[in-house]
Amino acid sequence: MTTSRIANVPNIITTIRLVLSIVVFALIAVDQFLAAMIVFIIAASTDWIDGYWARKYNQVTKVGRVFDPFVDKVIICGTFTFLAAEANSGVLPWMAVVVMGREMLVTGLRSFIEQAGGDFSASFSGKLKMLLQCIAVGASLLALHYSVGGNVPAWLSWTVTISVWIAMLSTVQSGVEYIFAAARYFRE
């Protein structure tokens, strides 16, 4: 059930997440990578909280169904973009393009299908993709923090490389899964 009240706890949490994402971008821009990582983790964790609250207390709104995924895309796409600009982040520019391209594609498909009355809710692979992207971002920000001091531990360098590549594979895989789901919807 969807309520009509816009100013509710889940939407306020989502608004706070949007503000925190801007703080993350500003912190990356001024090389405060450890602080950026902490704020990113707080912001990313609120995504679960607002969804849980909305469902548990019947506070799902039409605005929230659009605003929440929009803010998710801002924080992930924005952070990957800022990381791609950092030499030692492990995130290459094409990776940020893949993340943004997948998000725009899924948003367009979701908008079209839901406008036509279909259900195109987030899948498990989409949620797993978000988790893996968050792990990659956290590892990258931690490595950048160490690189300011001049010495990134070998284990962290490997963690960044592996987590970024797994996040990329998951991004592509979940995008392909959404394409097939949309194709099934259009055939019906």
CATH homology superfamily: CDP-alcohol phosphotransferase transmembrane (TM) domain
The 3D shape can be described as: globular
Return the CATH architecture: Up-down Bundle
Tell how many strands the DSSP assignment holds. 0
* Overall pLDDT level: 91
N→C terminal distance: 25 Å
Instruction: Output the CATH topology.
Output: Four Helix Bundle (Hemerythrin (Met), subunit A)
- Total DSSP helices: 6
Main beta-sheet strand count, sense and barrel state: none
Fraction in helix: over 70%
Describe the overall structure.
By secondary structure, the chain is an all-alpha fold. Helices cover about 80% and strands about 0% of the residues. It has a single domain (about 10-185), classed as Four Helix Bundle (Hemerythrin (Met), subunit A) (Up-down Bundle), CATH 1.20.120.1760. It is globular. It is built from six helices and no strands. The mean pLDDT is about 90.
